[in-house]
Amino acid sequence: MLVDEFWTATNSGHPYPEGPRIGDAFGELYLRSVMGESAMEIYERDDGYLIVSDVAKYVAPPGDWPQVEQWALERASGRVLDVGCGAGRAAVPLQERGEFVVGLDISPGAVEAARKRGVRRLFEGTVREHAAESPRYDTFLLLGGNLGLLESAEKAPGFLSALSAMSAPGARIIGIGTDPYESTNPLATSYNERNRRLGRMAGQLRARIRFEDLATPWFDYLRCSLDELNELLTGSDWRLGDVNTDWHPHYCVELHLRRA
Fold first, then answer.
1. Is residue 103 part of a domain?
2. Residue 176's pLDDT is what?
3. pLDDT of 171-218, one tens digit each?
């Protein structure tokens, strides 16, 4: 089919009126990356904004990471829960240096990909589901922007509470976040304003990941300033510790338990 014929057909509702299949697009991408195949991830925001990136980033060694992520990895110690572990990007080097690490992901394909890369301990599910097993950890690692898993002002307390329930004395959360206010791109600032009009936090993304004919369900992913993060910690068992802001607009934080 010629390109113009394709667009005519799809825009008229034929031959693909149902849209992409809903499934584990993340997992398929991770599996492709582990097999060394070339594949492109499509990040789709709910306003139609798209970003395309190479899945090779999911298996990049620490030496290829931004320095602030290397800084975060160096601080992880003891029993580590790698939250949103993907294909084991962080779990593999932690395991290689002798740390006890468990990779957690809701994606079956991600768990399979991490296992193929040699990650020995894995949990498929949410932090709340894992907390029900009563494990204890010294470090919760949320790399790759995974402070975004706080999702929203409404859901952040439950996420933080689940991590607290799995905390050993002196436990820490080490995570990467993104400040939504540091961009002057009109596509970013207008999206922030749109979110406010909808009663959401400005940096509360609603997005999905697509690969070929697959798409994940829509999910919320939170970008917040350090001040907003501090507000979200109010009433939780966590307080803000060290902060590294050398990778604008991204930052790395270390959160500490308020209790002993």
1. yes
2. 97
3. 999 999 999 999 999 999 999 999 999 999 999 999 999 999 999 999
Q: How many domains does the chain have?
A: 1
Q: At what angle do helices 25-34 and 108-116 cross, to 10 degrees?
A: 10
Preceding omega of 20 cis (within 30 degrees of 0): no
Question: Which domain does 156 fall in, by range?
Answer: 62-204+219-257
Buried b (16+ CB within 10 A) or exposed e, 223-251: bbbeebbeebbeebbbeeeeebeeeeebb
Q: How much is the pLDDT for 18?
A: 75
Residues paired with 252 in a beta bridge? 176, 244
The band of 103, judged by pLDDT with boundaries at 50, 70 and 90, is very high
Would residue 39 count as lying in a domain? no
175 CB-near residues (< 8 Å, 6+ apart): 72, 140, 141, 142, 143, 146, 147, 252, 253, 255
Residue 226 forms part of a structural domain: yes
Q: Which sign does the torsion angle of CA 203, 208, 212, 213 carry?
A: negative
C-alpha 97: how far from chain center:
23
Q: How confident is the model over 2-30, as pLDDT tens digits? A: 333 333 333 444 455 578 999 999 999 99
Q: Could you tell me if 164 and 237 are in contact, meaning their C-beta atoms sit under 8 angstroms apart?
A: yes
Please report, for residues 5, 132, 133, the alpha-carbon distance to residue 221 in angstroms, rounded to integers and kept in the order given. 36, 23, 26
pTM: 0.91
How many Cβ atoms sit within 10 Å of the Cβ of residue 46? 14
**Has residue 10 been placed in a domain?**
no
Sheet holding 122-124, edge to edge: 122-124, 100-105, 79-83, 137-142, 167-178, 250-257, 238-247
Residue written as tokens 């609603």?
206
